[in-house]
Structure formats: structure tokens, C-alpha cells
Amino acid sequence: MTGALPLDTVRTVADLRDRVRDWRKAGLRIGLVPTMGALHAGHVELVKRAVAGCDRTVVTLFVNPAQFGPSEDYAVYPRDEVRDAALVAAEGAGLLFAPGVEEVYPEGHSTKVHVGGLGDVLEGEFRPGFFTGVATVVTKLLLQSLPDEAFFGEKDYQQLQVIKKLIRDLDIPVTATGVPTVREADGLALSSRNAYLTAEERVQAPILHGTLAQVAEQVGRGVDPRMQEEWARGQLARAGFRQVDYVTVRDASTLEEAADASRPARVLAAAWLGKARLIDNVAV
Ligand code: PAF
């Protein structure tokens, strides 16, 4: 559905459920866009997709403490609910769910969702506990709002695969839809954390996407993925990335080492430029 609906904000699971129950009774198709706020054009694209394909769209705004490590940026993560609400309203979403930490994790909350295998590699290895935090909150948001379809950016490609897996494993009746990464004109993937780049680093940052695109092209032509990974590491180091956590060609759905050239593959990387840890991925 398109057109501007008035945007209500609810902060409790009870209010969210009341609202969704009425929509469901009316036979409306419900879309969910989970976010941590600090919305940019990538998030807006998710909301557009949801509004276009569903009768009502719920956007969630919750900076989830469970997915931040002790030395990560939870305390300083950008927050601006007024600005975010205006962006969401302009796209015609019907409801903003912006709970406080106590509402999502009340005193005594101790259940965690861990996606074994897929959630333990790559980002899971470099950010221990990250995917358990993501999987737990996304499971809760899905069960709280019971949408027909939920929308996630392909920028966080591994996260999307982890969420698809938990939906299958836990028989949650929802479709997870991946939405292509929105990029700046020079190729840099939009991310709330790009705000941490200095002016000089911002000029270097698109080299990450350019490098992954070259790897994808070469591997697509049959060049050995391991050789390409080596080349990409060197390329990023030469371009000023101070640390490359990983740059790797993986099976596009299991994220295991891409051994079978006939299956779809994905090139994924995480690398540090100054204080910013950038992640990106490209289809082979
Ligand atoms: O991608 C994000 O913004 C978050 O990981 C998500 C899916 C909203 C869960 O907190």
C-alpha cells in the first residue's frame, strides 16, 4: 500500500500486539522492518519495499545491547528517534515500535537464540556473541509482531542468512526478504557506522567494494578463489586498511568455503579503516 498514513509510535509489546491484531482481523498483510535507528537511504529502501508489498508496515527502532561486544560502540551508537520517525512516516509506514531496553529484556530475561554453524563463522568469529544477540532480538520482534514478511538489507549478508536459518529452524511463519545494498555513487555501502570515517578515510573506503567486485569477477571467470583472497588482502592493506579481518569467497547460502564452482557464491569482507570497521559483500 502507498500513500501517507499517520505514524503512531508504540513502546510496549502489548500495544504493538493490539495494533497488529486489529490489522490481522481485517485481513491485512503486515510487513516488518527491524532497525536500530540512525536511518539512512538503505533503511528507507527496506521501508519502501515493505510499504509496496504489504498493507501495513511496522518499523522497529531498537539499539539492541545484546549484539554489542564490551569494547564496541553501544553507548555512542547514533540515536535520533525524531528524525527516524519523520523518515519512516514520509514513506507511509503505519507504525513505529520503539521499545526501551527494559521492555525487550525485562529483569530475569535469560533465553538466547544461537544459530549454530552459520552464526559462528566470519562475523561470528570476530564478534563473539553478535549473532546470538541479533538472532535473539529478531526472534522476539518476529514473535511480537507476527508479520507476513520481514525485510533485511543484503549489506549484512551473513545476518540475513542467519535470520533465514532461524526462521526455518524455529518454524516461524514469516518470509525474510533480502533487499540489495544501497551504495554511494563511488560504491561505498551505506552504513550508520560510515559516520566514524574521517574525510581522508572516506576517500579510501570505496576501495573495499571495488576490490570485492574484482574478486567476484575473477572468480566468476574461473580464477582460483584462494589466490583472489590473497590478492584482495594485499590490495586492501596497500590502500590503507589497517587490518583485514577476513576477505573470503563462500557458498552463498551456507557460507562454507566455496568448493563447488557450480553453486552460487558470495565474496565477503570485513576490514578496518581507522576507527571504522567496514563490512561488504558482492555476488559472484
Ligand atoms: O541490522 C540491524 O540493524 C540489526 O542487526 C537488527 C536486524 C535490527 C537487529 O537488531
Order of helices and strands: EHEHEHEHHHEHEHHHEEE
The CATH superfamily of the largest domain is identified as: HUPs
Report the top-level CATH class of the largest domain: Alpha Beta
Shape: globular
Structural class: alpha/beta
Largest sheet: 6 strands, parallel
Proportion of residues in helical segments: 25-40%
Strand count: 9
Tell me what the CATH architecture of the largest domain is: 3-Layer(aba) Sandwich
Q: Give the amount of beta strand, in percent.
A: 15-25%
**What count of helical segments does DSSP give?**
10
Radius of gyration: 19 Å
Kindly give the count of domains.
2
Mean pLDDT: 95
Main attributes?
284 residues; 10 helices; Rossmann fold; binds pantoate; three-stranded antiparallel beta sheet; six-stranded parallel beta sheet; alpha/beta; 9 strands; Pantoate--beta-alanine Ligase, Chain: A,domain 2; globular
Provide structural commentary:
Helix content is 38%, strand content 19%. The chain has 284 residues and is of the alpha/beta class. The protein has 2 domains: 172 residues, Rossmann fold; 92 residues, Pantoate-beta-alanine ligase, C-terminal domain (Pantoate--beta-alanine Ligase, Chain: A,domain 2, 2-Layer Sandwich), CATH 3.30.1300. It has a 6-stranded parallel beta sheet with strand order 1-4-3-2-5-6, with helices on both faces. The longest helix has 16 residues. The radius of gyration is 19 Å and the shape is globular. The chain binds pantoate (PAF). Pantoate binds next to strand 2 and helix 6.
